[in-house]
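Input.
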Amino acid sequence: MESIQTKTTAYLIDEWGIFHSVVKPGVLLTLPEAKENEAARSRLIGGKRLPILLDIRNIGEMTAKAIQYTVKSGGSENYTAVALLVGSTKSAIIAAFSTRFNQSGMPLKQFSDKEKAIAWLKSYAVKED
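Output.
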């Protein structure tokens, strides 16, 4: 599996071709971190179109500017579908706010169960041999 990490987030592409983005516990995501994360995602994805699992269960906080940047400039052309994995009221609010900015028409769904999120994303994945 290919992987990369930033100060706030760990990224990997699994055997199904699902791109995992896992926010580290308690981090504050501001605009500079959002830009650093986008650069890391772009390096790892390398122009592929993949489904993405955004695991924000342990997020500390995320500024409105970081949310807007991530949704609008966050490389949505690289994703076939987005599953937002939430676990707290805070992460659910951030996910709901992010969903409001999604104007790409890309399938986007919120989950509290990781296995269900992955099962949903597998229908959008192309498994590489």
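The chain has one domain: 2-121.
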